[in-house]
């Protein structure tokens, strides 16, 4: 959504600079921390390809369904992303996020993602590798 209107373009556009790559990373972090699967899905191409841990997805409808389930399981989700590297139309990030399950066990999840964008600034590929570490509530660093 840009200016209240759905768009098939998401600036900044490739080729990326350090500044525009950081803008993409920040926009992704902000969107994911909003827990709105429909909003998040609009940053991806209609046929976007994902690997998230051991789950493989294709397209916005599958992304929305996946994120709804994720945020149902991962309560009070809070994410931080950091730019790792970039090229013309690709960005690599490392991240950590914290969440708790329905039994109130907290976790910190660590991972890396590689992203590939089309000419309109939409992400056409997202590959994520993630590991979870159980933590106590007082070990949290990413407080809402």
TrEMBL record:
A Pfam family of the record is: DUF1348
Recorded hits in PANTHER family, A to Z, give: SLL0781 PROTEIN
Annotated protein name in UniProt: DUF1348 family protein
Q: What is the lineage of its organism?
A: Bacteria, Bacillati, Actinomycetota, Actinomycetes, Kitasatosporales
